């Protein structure tokens, strides 16, 4: 049964430690215990990627609505921190256009004392599913989170309202011979805006955006076609596991490598490491290279939905 009043959704938002601009979901609905839906805006640039929304941004919204679904199962309104530790994304529809009407995200979740899981889906306005994401979270009380990360606490503002959009761009990527690509950057407060206020931690979805960007440039380079500078791709499957939580001031290096061909897709794997050489996150994905004709066909499919 849909909750018609806004009182419970507002209380629900206070249970998670995420705010605007990182949390950009609109028209939040609690459909039942552990069952939440919302509208998701498109804010991240697609770059070379084809789709109504980038896989990284879809992961952002889906992981957030999944945490809200899990939070709806809490026994009280106390604040908790939902740390996504593993996510697995699958494409359900190949269409590449934006379609008409808002995109919708829906999540069903399970919650235990220290962990949660959610099955989520991104849908077109027509109701057709585009992407599915399964997420596993570590759940920490505010007291536990503060005790573990107190050395990273900061009273400084965590950035402005534009900080939802990742700063990393195609010009930051270096592709080298042998099927490798990389990018390096320093996390600043703007990268963490709206995410764990008072503890400037970079969201996993922004790491995912970086992984996808670097891997996409590698796929375009591997295509080596006449119009490779305009090469496009879609992500059909990817998994991301987070080992550490990067904070403002950390320096991150994203390294990607071509693994091989799997059916019609190029398998790319990579790791994010910090300034101490520790693994922060690991990424694996299947990219499908698309020529201009394939992109037009995908857009035709999208218009037919």
The counted number of beta strands is: 12
Q: Radius of gyration over alpha carbons?
A: 19 Å
Low-pLDDT segments: 1-6, 292-303
Task: Just give the CATH class.
Answer: Mainly Beta
Strand content: 35-45%
Helix content: 10-25%
Average pLDDT confidence is: 86
Distance from N terminus to C terminus (CA atoms, Å) equals 28 Å
CATH superfamily: Acyl-CoA thioesterase, double hotdog domain
- CATH fold descriptor: Porin
Count of distinct structural domains: 1
User: How are the strands of the biggest sheet laid out side by side?
Assistant: 1-2-4-5-6-3-9-12-11-10-8-7
Q: What would you call the shape?
A: globular
Query: Which series of helices and strands comes N to C?
Result: HEEHEEEEHEEHEEEEH
What is the CATH architecture assignment? Beta Barrel
Main sheet properties: 12 strands, antiparallel
**Alpha-beta content class:** alpha+beta
């Amino acid at each position: 049964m849909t909750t018609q009043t806004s009182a419970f959704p507002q209380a629900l938002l206070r249970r998670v430690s995420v705010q605007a601009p990182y949390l950009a979901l609109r028209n939040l609905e609690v459909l039942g215990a552990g069952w939440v839906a919302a509208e998701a805006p498109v804010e991240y640039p697609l770059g070379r990627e084809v789709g109504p929304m980038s896989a990284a941004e879809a992961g952002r919204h889906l992981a957030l609505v999944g945490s809200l679904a899990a939070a709806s199962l809490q026994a009280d309104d106390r604040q908790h921190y939902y740390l996504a530790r593993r996510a697995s994304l699958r494409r359900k529809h190949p269409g590449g256009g934006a379609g008409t009407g808002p995109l919708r995200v829906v999540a069903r979740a399970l919650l235990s004392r220290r962990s949660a899981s959610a099955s989520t889906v991104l849908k077109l306005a027509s109701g057709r599913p585009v992407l599915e994401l399964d997420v596993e979270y570590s759940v920490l009380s505010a007291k536990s989170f503060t005790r573990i990360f107190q050395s990273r606490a900061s009273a400084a503002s965590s950035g402005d309202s534009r900080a939802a959009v990742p700063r990393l761009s195609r010009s930051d990527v270096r592709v080298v011979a042998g099927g490798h690509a990389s990018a390096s950057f320093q996390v600043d407060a703007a990268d963490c805006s709206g995410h764990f206020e008072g503890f400037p931690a970079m969201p996993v979805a922004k790491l995912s955006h970086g992984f996808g960007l670097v891997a996409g440039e590698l796929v375009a380079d591997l295509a080596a076609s006449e119009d490779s500078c305009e090469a496009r791709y879609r992500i059909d499957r990817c998994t991301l596991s987070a080992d550490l939580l990067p904070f403002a001031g950390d320096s991150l290096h994203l390294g990607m490598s071509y693994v091989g061909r799997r059916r019609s897709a190029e398998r790319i794997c990579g790791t994010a490491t910090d300034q101490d050489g520790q693994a922060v996150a690991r990424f694996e994905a299947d990219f499908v290279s698309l020529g201009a004709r394939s992109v037009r066909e995908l857009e035709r499919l999208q218009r037919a939905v």
